[in-house]
Amino acid sequence: MEKAILLAVLITTVHPKALTACQPKEHNSDSWITVIGEATGCWGNFTDANGTEVHILTLELSENVPMLEITMNITSPTTLILNSNINATILVTANPLLKEIHHSAKLIVYLQPVTKKQVQVPATDNLLNWAKQEFGGVTSMTTVYEPGTITFHGGKAQGGSTECVPHSSIFPATPVTFTSKYQSCSDQPPSPTQSEVHILNILDTSVNLRRIYLHISSTKEVSFILRSPVSASWNLYGGSKFVSNTEVFIEQFNFTAPSTFNLTDDNRELWEFAKDKFSSAFITSYSEISTHGRVLRLFFNRKDETLPTPSSSIASLPTLTTSSVEKGGIGMQLYLNSDYTGPIDEQTKVKSDQKIYAEITVKVHGEIPAILKVTSCSVRAKAPCDVVRNLPFHSEHCSPMVCPYKKRISFSFHNVQELPAVQWEVECSSELCFEGRCAKFPPAKSNLEVIKTCTPSKPCYEFELPAVLGIAFGGFLIGVLLIGALWYIKVRTGYPAGLDVVSNNSHISGFPCPLLKRQPVSPNPSPSENSSANPSIGSTQSTPTSSMA
């Protein structure tokens, strides 16, 4: 018997799957997650003749709750109208600016302190029309679903109209902030040494849900299983590892990660999947959430921070800045050897003709089957003047198993030897690509000290500014002297004398010098030519005479 018990214990210890999932219990909020629900309705800028705002708040509850608390955090005179779909008890923490409370017969309202007037609203199917007739108008009408804690801010909508026309949603600008109920549990107490694995399970009963905003605020690296209905997608703010069954838009990199698994909302199935995926024997927290709204906001580990004000938008919520991405998102390390050993730091002196190897690494949240590409590199000489040159590089092979989200390249400074020596900065731009879509990263930078190398075939000459000015002035003087010598020769010599005796009519337009006039040739031969020719002619003519004789 003892052996059987010992064997069962060993099996449970060796195989984390054997551990059963914890049973989630209802929470409004805990040390891990705060759930902000979506409010629907309308919001305008109406005030009555006395400057008092009129707000309607309707509670949609699925079951009886012991008591709901509403904190009035208003800054203007307000009349509040409360309504509910079922019987409920409400505790209202009053505010000096709260003038009156009107509520339906289904609600029992307690004021703290009890100083305000309470009026029961008559039974009606159209509370909005009743309020308009009673007060002349309505500033806002808000419906909240399954609220946990409610903070009412009131106020008038910025740029809104006087008429309050109901819409399907007024998120994220709303006069009400409320947390939604959810269930959670944990089988691991918080530990500063152990890695954390959290499961966020949005149940399939959330049929209207379309977008989930997850804001992560944690000083340590955590891992998430993000599971939701297939009709919804996630927006991730902050850094973490994750896997998801739907698309996740990573705000830090402006990149959409595809789904990586397909699981139901069964808690035991997710529990075992998380332990296998992250090789963890414990799950730090498991949260089960359901909502009737189209939008959901989740804040992870925000116990030391305040919730956003209702007027804030998603774009204005805390996100990572460019500087934080440069520090933690992407980096470049330079090496002296092709096996990427011997890292170069800022104190290492490198020769300008030496080949350098670089490894660019990007920190990616989640499992994204993407490829890191280096698009361009440049080198900047910081002293004595700021000069930038393009830096050619070659890609070095590295398997994805060895280099996940890394890119290795090599280059030399052979083509940029003219840059001033001392401090150089190498900068490379890269992008992460998946299925034809690419997300650009801030440039990765690395500094190094360069020593110029001079070769006999290409000696290095460095000229200071006085030397350059002296050479230029000397060249100018030589040119002036040469021009003066040529002018002197022209003045002293002039044209050749033989050309001056030529008649003016022998000058041809367009030529600088006159031409000699050619003598005409006589058509009659000279006497000497005739005398020499006659004997030959006579002898030629006498030959036939003698032969005839």
Number of strands: 34
Round the mean pLDDT to the nearest integer and report it: 74
Helix proportion: 10-25%
Q: What oligomeric state do the depicted chains represent?
A: single chain
Structural class: alpha/beta
Separate helix tally:
6
End-to-end CA span: 173 Å
Strands ordered across the widest β-sheet: 1-14-22-15-17-19
- Please outline the major beta sheet: 6 strands, mixed
Radius of gyration: 46 Å
Q: Report strand %.
A: 25-35%
What is the overall shape?
elongated
Count up the domains: 3
Low-confidence residue ranges = 1-19, 302-328, 497-518, 526-549
How would you explain this protein's 3D organization?
The chain is of the alpha/beta class and 549 residues long. The protein has 3 domains: 39-170, no CATH class; 190-319, no CATH class; 325-451, Immunoglobulin-like (Sandwich), CATH 2.60.40. Helices cover 17% and strands 34% of the residues. The chain is built from 6 helices and 34 strands. It has helices at 2-14, 127-135, 267-277, 322-328, 465-493, 527-548, and strands at 25-27, 33-36, 40-43, 53-60, 68-72, 78-84, 88-93, 98-103, 107-112, 117-120, 140-145, 147-152, 176-180, 182-185, 196-202, 211-216, 222-227, 233-237, 241-244, 248-250, 255-257, 285-289, 295-300, 330-335, 343-344, 349-351, 356-362, 371-381, 387-390, 394-396, 406-411, 422-434, 437-440, 444-451. The chain has a 6-stranded mixed beta sheet, with helices on one face. Strands 2-23-16-18-20-21 form a 6-stranded mixed beta sheet, with no helix packed on it. A 6-stranded mixed beta sheet has the order 3-11-4-6-8-10, with helices on one face. A hairpin with a 2-residue loop joins strand 32 (422-434) and strand 33.
